[in-house]
Amino acid sequence: MTFEGFPDEGLVFYEGLEADNSKTYWTGNRPVYESSVRAPMQALVDELADEFGPAKLFRPYRDVRFSHDKTPYKTHQGAVVEPAGRSAGAWYVQISADGLRVAGGCWRLESDQVARYRRAVVDDVQGPRLAGEVARLVGAGWELGGDRLARSPRGIDIPDDDRADLLRHRSLNVARQWEPVDWLHTRGALDRVRTAWRDVVALNTWMADNVGATTKEMRRR
To answer: Are the beta carbons of 146 and 173 closer than 8 angstroms?
Structure first.
């Protein structure tokens, strides 16, 4: 299947799901989800696979076992590319009633990865490289995110304010959002995602080179 954009019917589907997050609504509208959400998302990431690698599409069902929110269905469709053996730099794309979202970086790090991340931030070569890349991305319109401590870890002192702020992160990612516009329903959306993912290649490479894969047994999700 060739990607031709995200049909408006998919966004309308999610507007309805936000209003009625029930099995009845889902069952009655699942054909719309399959044809206007999941299929175009699969087509999008398939066209990007040669450059970035194969993507995993997330399931539409929420894990409500440990959540106070018991609504059963996600109100967005996401997909992620996690290069094999790298583990600390990924690309993400998401479609919802709010439009298109893209992101890069890392969303969760194990303790051994956090330790390596901190050593790299403190390093006088790798630390400024990360700070410079983050500043470039934020200046280009990306939003900085990730799990952060309230204050810098004890016993680590960096006079550089930018790196001191980065040292508080236990994960680090960037994202940007586009509201629903006409190009979202065309192949122009593919160009937007491709350009955005290329923009975070340097960040992902830094993460892969300095943080890398965890050596710990992976936790079950």
So the answer is: yes
Rounded CA separation 189/5 (Å): 6
- At residue 131, what is the residue type? A
Q: Give phi and psi for 147, each to the nearest 5.
A: -70, 130
Q: What type of residue is 57?
A: L
3-state secondary structure of 148: strand
Give pLDDT, residue 220.
Answer: 47
φ and ψ at 47, to 5 degrees? -75, -20
Given this model, what pLDDT does residue 210 score? 94
Hey, what CATH topology would domain 8-210 get?
BirA Bifunctional Protein; domain 2 (3.30.930)
Radius of gyration of the chain (CA): 19
> Where are the chain's structural domains?
8-210
Tell me: pLDDT of 5 over 70.
Answer: yes
Helices 201-210 & 188-199 angle (0-180, nearest 10):
40
Q: Is 180 helix (H, G, I), strand (E, B) or coil?
A: coil
User: 99 pairs with which residues across the strands?
Assistant: 96
Q: Which of 143, 93, 128, 86 is nearest to 109 (CA)?
A: 86
Q: How many residues does the chain have?
A: 221
**Nearest-angstrom CA–CA distance, 34 and 54:** 20
pLDDT digits 0-9 by tens, 57-96:
999 999 888 888 889 999 999 999 997 765 789 999 999 9
- Crossing angle for the helix pair 111-122 and 201-210, to the nearest 10 degrees: 110
79 touches 161 (CB < 8 A): no
